């Protein structure tokens, strides 16, 4: 307990790093993932803008990058991070790489929820004379918004999980804190304090996501 | 000039397994729909009627033939031009296909927004439509809070929002109970009569055709096998498939199985009289039989009414002197169609 008090500044700094990496990754990965998901959805056979070549390419990209274990992905993506954010290590590089890795998974989640929109509803919009992009933004996305929010909530939890590993490239965060000051120094209290805070984060995010989805789906 | 005309229209889909023959959903269909018609298209599921109706608003492109809608050949238009055509054709569906993320009001407003109406105009129009379909109190409700019949009424309001000249109804009542079906059909009748909208009704239920259609086309395996005035098709269906459909709502000539039951129960000669458009001739038949001193009873059949015109088939068991029966039947045969379906059994 004394040790935890001594480490309080590092603890809160780590908490902030986790929050920073998670929100950075959520915004960037969320947007990239939405884009990937939309491309997968509209270009699939029978889709709003079906296009075999683009569909195959997008699927290939997702299927190549998604299965790479995140621990390895971090190392692989470091040179790319250096080009885009200027550095290959540290919190921002970590957040960037998390966003990248997450965008492929988010893309699939977005695609799945868009695909589950009733084809009849899409057809009704077509019958009224709506064009493909119009249908995408005023029908497909609004109709699947509730499940999409739940999907994003699920992803935030996965993002927090990934931030724990970002310590490997100097990303910091509660995961690294628990590892360095708790686990390696035989300080269970320190370790569990970090874990408890992560659990609180996850819980809050889930609560918020569920509430929001409930409100949109009215159930 | 017909408002919709199809000339040798076909629609084929490539087969799912390469090498197999393509699947022909609509096969060389020619029909014309006049302005103000309620045109029924009936067929079993898989007959191609849903595909046919989607060719009219070009949701599906035809693979052969030409389709004119309001004078425009839709088979020659580009997708962007087709969107304009579609905006002028309303469509309602079996599963209603309302936007679950939007309120009733916003559902009805959607096509108006697409058409670029001003906010104030949309407001007025939606209010007007809500009152037309009798759902003024449901404007703020979401689709899941409505019953099936109410959902379809919203669907109708949405389809009529931009004031289309044509309304396509794809199995619009098939998910509804009989009571609600008739409410929705009454509403469609009003749409046709009060607003002059031409309606194309796709259904597998003859009852729907009988209730609202003026013309009917019977489809089987992608082809239109019979078409014409509803009264004509109902009172004298030519094709076996049409006869089966008509038989679902009209008791016609007894089937062989029914005949053997009738035979067991009733003595005498069984004769079917087919009436068309004449209540008076019916009374005359009974009069003729009675004045010839014959003994008769009604054993099968019924009289139907389509828009005030009566028709039907009545099967009587007639007993008496054979020669007298023959004479009387010959007299009656001059006015109505007489079919002797079973002579006195040899005892």
Describe this structure in words.
- The complex is a heterodimer of chains A (219) and B (347).
- Chain A has 219 residues and is mainly α.
- Chain A has one domain (2-217): MetI-like fold, CATH 1.10.3720.
- Chain A has ten helices and no strands.
- Chain A starts with a helix and ends with a helix.
- The mean pLDDT of chain A is 92.
- Chain B is of the alpha/beta class and 347 residues long.
- Chain B folds into two domains: 4-249, P-loop containing nucleotide triphosphate hydrolases (Rossmann fold, 3-Layer(aba) Sandwich), CATH 3.40.50.300; 256-342, ACT domain (Alpha-Beta Plaits), CATH 3.30.70.260.
- In chain B, the strands form three sheets. A six-stranded mixed β-sheet of chain B has the order 6-7-8-3-9-10, sandwiched between helices. A four-stranded antiparallel β-sheet of chain B has the order 2-1-4-5, covered by helices on one side.
- In chain B, helix 3 (104-114) packs across helix 4 and helix 5 (148-160) runs parallel beside helix 6.
- The longest helix of chain B is centred in the middle third of the chain and has 18 residues, at 178-195.
- The radius of gyration of chain B is 25 Å and the shape is elongated.
- The model of chain B has no long low-confidence stretch (mean pLDDT 90).
- The chains are: A mainly alpha (219), B alpha/beta (347).
- At the A-B interface, helix 6 and helix 7 of A face helix 2 and helix 3 of B.
Question: What key phrases describe this protein's structure?
Answer:
heterodimer, A: 219 residues, mainly alpha, MetI-like fold, 0% strand, B: 347 residues, alpha/beta, Rossmann fold, Alpha-Beta Plaits, 2 domains, six-stranded mixed β-sheet, four-stranded antiparallel β-sheet, 12 helices, 14 strands
């Amino acid at each position: 307990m004394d040790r935890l008090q001594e480490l309080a500044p590092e603890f809160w700094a780590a908490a902030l790093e986790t929050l920073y990496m998670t929100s950075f990754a959520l915004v960037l990965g969320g947007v990239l993932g939405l884009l990937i998901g939309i491309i997968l959805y509209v270009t699939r056979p029978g889709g709003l803008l079906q296009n075999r070549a683009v569909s195959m390419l997008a699927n290939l990209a997702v299927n190549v990058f998604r299965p790479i274990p995140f621990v390895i992905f971090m190392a692989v993506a470091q040179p790319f991070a250096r080009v885009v954010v200027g550095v290959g290590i540290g919190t921002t590089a970590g957040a960037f790489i998390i966003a990248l890795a997450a965008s492929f998974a988010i893309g699939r989640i977005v695609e799945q929820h868009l695909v589950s929109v009733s084809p009849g509803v899409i057809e009704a919009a077509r019958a009224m004379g709506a064009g493909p992009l119009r249908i995408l933004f005023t029908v497909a996305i609004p109709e699947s918004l509730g499940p999409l929010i739940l999907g994003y909530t699920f992803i935030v939890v996965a993002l927090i999980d990934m931030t724990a590993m970002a310590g490997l490239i100097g990303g910091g965060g509660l995961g690294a804190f628990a590892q360095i000051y708790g686990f390696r120094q035989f300080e269970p209290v320190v370790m569990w304090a970090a874990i408890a805070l992560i659990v609180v984060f996850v819980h809050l995010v889930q609560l918020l996501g569920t509430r929001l989805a409930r409100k949109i789906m009215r159930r | 000039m017909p408002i919709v005309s199809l000339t040798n229209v076909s629609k084929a889909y490539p087969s799912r397994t390469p090498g197999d023959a393509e699947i022909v959903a609509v096969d060389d269909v020619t029909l014309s729909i006049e302005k103000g018609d309620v045109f029924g298209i009936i067929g079993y599921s898989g007959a191609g009627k849903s595909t046919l109706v989607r060719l009219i608003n070009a949701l599906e492109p035809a693979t052969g033939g030409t389709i004119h809608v309001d004078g425009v050949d839709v088979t020659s238009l580009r997708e962007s031009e087709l969107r304009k055509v579609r905006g002028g054709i309303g469509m309602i569906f079996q599963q209603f296909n309302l936007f679950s993320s939007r309120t009733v009001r916003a559902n009805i407003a959607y096509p108006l927004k697409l058409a670029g109406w001003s906010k104030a105009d949309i407001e007025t129009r939606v209010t007007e439509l809500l009152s037309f379909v009798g759902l003024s109190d449901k404007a703020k409700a979401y689709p899941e809070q409505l019953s099936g019949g109410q959902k379809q009424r919203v669907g109708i309001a949405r389809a009529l929002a931009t004031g289309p000249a044509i309304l396509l109804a794809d199995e619009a009542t098939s998910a509804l109970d009989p009571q609600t079906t008739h409410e929705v059909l009454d509403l469609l009748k009003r749409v046709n009569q009060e607003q002059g909208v031409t309606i194309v009704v796709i259904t597998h239920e003859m009852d729907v055709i009988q209730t609202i259609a003026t013309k009917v086309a019977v489809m089987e395996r992608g082809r239109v096998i019979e078409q014409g005035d509803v009264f004509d098709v109902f009172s004298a269906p030519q094709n076996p498939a049409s006869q089966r459909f008509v038989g679902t709502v009209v008791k016609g000539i007894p089937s062989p199985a029914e005949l053997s039951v009738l035979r067991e129960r009733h003595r005498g000669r069984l004769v079917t009289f087919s009436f068309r458009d004449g209540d008076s001739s019916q009374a005359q038949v009974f009069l003729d039989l009675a004045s010839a001193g014959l003994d008769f009873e009604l054993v099968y059949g019924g009289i139907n009414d389509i828009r005030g015109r009566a028709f039907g088939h009545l099967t009587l068991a007639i007993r008496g002197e054979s020669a007298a029966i023959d004479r009387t039947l010959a007299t009656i045969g001059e006015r109505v169609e007489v079919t002797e379906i079973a002579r006195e059994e040899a005892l």
